[in-house]
Each structure stands twice: as C-alpha cells, then as structure tokens.
C-alpha cells in the first residue's frame, strides 16, 4: 500500500513549487495582484475564476512555475486540494498563504491506487506537500491508511476475499500489536452462535462461517467493542437476488472493513481503551443445506427468530456478534454494516443513517462528523415500529413483510441484542462510491470512519 507519510514533509523553507488556492469570491482581487505574465496566461486559457479552474502559471524563469486551483471548498475541508495531488507533476509543493491543514488527507489519498489486478495508470513519482505542522503527518498518514484499507478490502472480489482472508487480515493486525485473536469456526458455531452458523452453513469448504475476535489493551481501561458485518458475498440465499442486485455484493463485507480499519487506528495510536473487535464472517451462499425462509433460528441471546427473508442475513450475524460483545460489559459498542437498501433509498450513498438512543453518544458522533467533513445522519430508533418485528411462532422476525421503514426496523432488530444501558450506535454504511470525486475513486470507500475515530479520540485520548 502507498506510504502516505512520504507524501507529506516538514516545511523547512526548502525549494518547492507554490500552489495557489483561490476562492471564486476572491478571484478578481487575486488576479489583480498578479504580474502581467500570469494575467496573460489566465486570459489565454479563458479562466473565469469558477470552482475547478486550474492552470500552470509561469515564473521569472522557464523552470520557475507554480500551480493554480480555484476552489470553493471550506479551508478546513480535507478535499480542498484533493484534485491536485494526482494531477500535478511529481515534485514538492507548498500551499501559498497558509497551512494545508486537513487538506493533507485529500492530497495523499489522491495518490492511492488499487493495483492488485492491474498496474497503476500513474507513471509519475510522488508529489510531496510541505507543512509547518509536522506533528500532524503521522496522524494524517494513519487515517489515510485506514481509508485505503477499507477501499482495498471492499474492491477485492469475493473469490479472493472470503471468511478465511478476513480472518487473516485480523490476525495480521493483531500480530503487529500484540493482540489476542480468537476464532470460532464452522460447526463450533452451532451452539454458541447459531445465527452466524445458519447464514454461513451453505458456503463451500474452505469458506466456512466464523466469528473473528480481537482483544487488546489494558483491562483496567474503558472497554469498547467494534462490530462489523462480514458477509463476503451475498447471493441473497434462497431468496436470491436478481443479477443487478448481486453485482456489487462483494462489498457486503464493507462493515467488517470499516470495523477493522477503525480498530487499526485504535491500535496504532495506542488509545487507552480495552478494545474488542468482532467480525462475523460468512458467505450467504445457496446449496442444499442453505437456511430457508420460514426456518426458526435460535440465537446466542436466547431469542428465537423466524427467518422471513434469507436476504436479511446481515442483521442475523450481527445479532449473535452484538450479544457476544455485550457479555463483557463494554461501556460503548459501535457497529458498521452494509445492512439495508432502504438506507440508500432514504439518504443515498453519501449519508450513513446512524442510529443510537444514547443522546451523549449521538451528539459526539455528529459533532465529530461535522468537524471531519465525514457526514453522518441521525435516524430514529422509533419504538413504535417494534411491532413490525412480531412473529406468530417465534420471538421475532428478521424482516417485516410490509417493507416500510426498512432501515429503522433493521436497527430495531439489532437493538434487541444490545444490553440495556450500554451506549451503542449503528451505522448503515454503503461502503461504495458510485461515481468518482477528487481523491475518491469509484469503488469501495469509507463512510463515517473518520467521524468515529474523531469521536473515540475525543472521548478516550490522553
């Protein structure tokens, strides 16, 4: 993976190209202060000071040039100069008139490529951005690595990323930081984690379901749990998806990718917490032993669940994992899941619906989301819809027949597996960017990750 720290450097006054970033409202004033040669180039390229305008500006000598970007992003946006990190010639740059600040993140992410299956189309060398805040470089690099981890895991096809590969990713992280790894796998799940077993039991040999756990940190520190849905491929099961709906289902482990990346940030920063990472990793496959519509499933919690839809499998595996997380008395549980299409209908790909009935936690998450330009949107855990989960023969169903309030009823289902009194938030992330933006290519992407990390740092950081 890209060494993001090498794309940033401390500013000691060394030789560097200047990058001018001008807001459209300041265009006229800025242009009036430029020498004739710059005004001539601007006029020749018919630049009008609109957001997105860019140019290479001449200096006194042939090699003495600088770059211009017209941008209406806020000065604290991580994406303010993101487009430049991937298009400028290789070399060293300095932002004119101020510090890059949060924009360092977009600069370095713009130079990341997923190259597992083909060579990068970027033949140039790295572009380094100088900063007078060298103490921020390591943190920016760690966050960029976490975002890139989500992207690379989600972009990897299911043939190369099954439950075993997710387990190995957790082991690699744990081994690097002295964490304890526990894996409960295959038939071992039947009694302790029956819903995880039911969802994954039809997978081929070598792709058996498993619950992957990582524990790290001083037991005397506050205990937090991070849970991620790890459905490595979702056919829909016997309630099979149509071809169009199955096309992107390699990304159904996007919740696990977020959880793993967030756990990595906790470990790398040595946050003073007792961390418990849980990833139920399964493939929702079709075979003669696949779980069926109408089956009544046991759960680790002791609740019986009537399976009304085999394509509502993510909440089942999360239910057992959340129950396990709650047994260790954490003070905080966060879960990430590519859980419902209803979430996308309601809020689209960019806004992860976020559910919590802990007012302090949701306030902290939303504040962190605003500060990091990593939006979250609170949705209601409306108890009036609990009746939709009623079953005639079991304690509950996994998916109401009505189709109403799908993201909310999925969250209400999960809430039944979280101990009362524990601060808990559920993020229904898309984990996919359907259209490219600067430093954010089409494909796997992280949503709510940076906001969650900011919240954890603010709560538990020294």
UniProtKB/TrEMBL annotation:
Q: Does the keyword Transcription regulation apply?
A: no
Q: Does the keyword Hydrolase apply?
A: yes
Q: Where is the Cytosol aminopeptidase domain?
A: 309-316
Which Gene Ontology molecular function entries are recorded, alphabetically?
aminopeptidase activity
Database matches in Pfam families: Peptidase_M17 (PF00883), Peptidase_M17_N_1 (PF21337)
Mind listing the UniProt keywords for this protein, alphabetically?
Aminopeptidase, Hydrolase, Manganese, Protease
Q: What family, per the record?
A: Belongs to the peptidase M17 family.
Protein name (record): Leucyl aminopeptidase family protein
Give the source species.
Answer: Sphingomonas donggukensis
